[in-house]
Amino acid sequence: MRVRTVLGDVASADLGVCDAHDHLFLRTPRLPGRELDDPAHAAARLRAFAGLGGRTIAHWTPYGLGRRTKELAELSAATGVHIIAATGLHQAVHYDPGLLARIRPGLAALFHRELTDGPAGMIKVAGGFHGLDEHARHTMAAAAEASNATGAPIGVHLEEGTAALDVLDLLCGSLGVPPDRVILSHLNRSPDPWIHRRAAEAGAYLCFDGPSRAHHATDWRLFDVLAALAEAGHTDRVLMGGDTTTPDTPGMPHLLRVLRPRVEAQLGRGVATAIFETNPARALAFSGRAGGSP
């Protein structure tokens, strides 16, 4: 299996320790004055991550939100950390309506082009709070078309961790995306073990990311839900990420300095290896023709 990074394809077995959901650069009107837009700061975080044994990050900043793809390639080359960039779209509130109107008719072609010609190695889309609006459905349809043509994985922002099963019903039911091509994120923000088990049983990957100040009340439940998934036999579906969204987010270093040792201490070294190495090597890989034409 191959993974598409900003410096080209690599064997999935070479990814090493992965941060399965993060951001080096991000600009959105939803976070005014709190942009991630400093290459020196990004380089420092990457070096700290690498110093703790990190080898790969999945950079979930999609089209139109300040990905800085040229800098991503430069940072990867300078630090030796693999970076997987995203195409796709976030929720409509993150964009100028004029931009959405221009790109909407050719969205699937845009995603496909960025997956095949660069810079993207995955697609990022977003649901809504306990449901899917028209923008989400349109974006997910385009993502499904591009994923089914290329084999690219689809990462899904779940608003407050909700609507996981609605997303799977649409992507994997109506739109025919294999469930192991879908990564559901922010599940720690809605720590519902029943929903988590259902999503894992469906075959999707479950990404627990953060921590985040806005969701601190759920942080202490993270290891309860991880333990519940392990007990139910779903360790092979779990991923973790730092999800750095503002300059003060603990992010990548916290993921490996604090959370990974705790996974190992509470759930065992084998579970930690699965979550940070084995599972992301599968989840982030292209399936089928890996970027071929439809």
TrEMBL record:
Report the protein name in the record: Phosphotriesterase
Tell me if DNA damage is a UniProt keyword of this record. no
Could you tell me which InterPro entries the record lists for this protein?
A: Metal_Hydrolase (IPR032466), Phosphotriesterase (IPR001559)
The scientific name of the source species is Actinomadura violacea
Q: Record keywords: Transmembrane helix included?
A: no
List residues, modification N6-carboxylysine.
124
Q: Which UniProt keywords apply?
A: Hydrolase, Metal-binding
**What Pfam families does this protein map onto?**
PTE (PF02126)
Instruction: Please indicate which superkingdom the organism of origin belongs to.
Output: Bacteria
The protein's matches in Gene3D superfamilies, at most eight in alphabetical order, are given as: Metal-dependent hydrolases
Please state which protein family the record places this protein in.
Belongs to the metallo-dependent hydrolases superfamily. Phosphotriesterase family.
